[in-house]
Amino acid sequence: MNTLAEAAVDLTAIEQNVRTIGAAADTALMAVVKADGFGHGAVPVARAALRAGAGWLGVASAAEALALRAAGITAPVLSWLHRPDDDFAALIAAGTDIGVSTVAHLHAVADAARALGVPATVQLKADTGLSRNGAAERDWPEVTGWARKFELEGAVRVRAVWSHLADADVPDSPGLSRQVTLFEEALALARAAGLDPDLVHLANSAAALGAPRTRYDLCRIGLALYGVDPFGGNGPGRYGLRAAMTLRAGVVNVKRVPAGTGVSYGPEHVTRGPTTLALLPLGYADGLPRAAEGRGAVRLAGRRCPIVGRIAMDQCVVDAGDLPVEIGDEAVVFGPERDDDRTQPTVAQWARWARTIPNEILTGVGARVVRRYRHDETELS
Ligand SMILES: *Cc1c(COP(=O)(O)O)cnc(C)c1O
């Protein structure tokens, strides 16, 4: 291995996932590349998704939207989590769509558009059950009313009406039906206010794959884009998604120790018999959750080997038993699922070990882990 710790990102897998989801959902797709592309790198993932036919890019913050433009990406972009003092003029000038959830935001966006002399393109978000962002039911008439006023004035154009689902990953969720009903009502009210959105969107990954009636014109795809089953294996099918990230490191030290040897901080782990310990330069600052203590494992020397003792900030210790392990040998923390080889953990397994979700493991991969991009078996950078 030529680096100590790396996250190898397979851009061919990203492309393939876009095609797989696009074929299943039969709608346009928005590749959600917030949080640096779920830790994979927003710009390379965005480019791969666009190559494979995604029509849109979605991010949370204005800064994330502007970073895509700064990288030279001209495709349609939507950002949706804005602070009142965000630089809406910068977004309008960059030609990105602005997700709007409140009257106050709408006024701020219209003010920026007037000052710039360029209309803002907005996507109005309704809250249909998450109680996070999105206009609440009682505020929706006011939001759509002001949006129509600003449209007539020429300050804004309403491109879309949209919302976000709370539990699309739960098959047959009654909450989902209720959200669809509320969304339909919000859409009808928007049209009654005189708005005529080109785009209507509601579905995330799980809904795109599992709930056809939520697909409308566009599905916003996060987790599935990165090749992780949004149903955690409990969904309506196997989708042929391919995990894009492999987190791995070369062994930096190896020692043979006798029984009774303490390992890592604290008293938790003492070897039961003579064994070989392999040290990996990956710790919780690199994304290995301490909460996986006693459960986490890696693939090393062709086997699954447990991480023993506490995971430290920069490193962790693997018990390799009597396997022949040498400094420099590659250990895979997680990577794609392989039907022929169950020794390699997946990110979903790590999430279960740490009592969390794969999204948190992926976005937790630390900044000092080098991202290396592969495309069609070729090293790109
Ligand atoms: C993160 C996010 C998504 C992507 O969700 P997945 O379940 O990962 O597909 C879609 N829409 C919004 C508004 C989001 O914040």
Automatic annotation (TrEMBL):
Biological process GO annotation list? D-alanine biosynthetic process; peptidoglycan biosynthetic process
* Sites bearing N6-(pyridoxal phosphate)lysine, chain numbering: K34
User: Which keywords label this protein?
Assistant: Isomerase, Pyridoxal phosphate
Reaction catalyzed: L-alanine = D-alanine
Q: Report the cofactors.
A: pyridoxal 5'-phosphate
Positions annotated to bind substrate:
R132, M313
So what does this one do?
A: Catalyzes the interconversion of L-alanine and D-alanine. May also act on other amino acids.
What's the name of the protein?
Answer: Alanine racemase
Q: Which organism is it from?
A: Micromonospora krabiensis
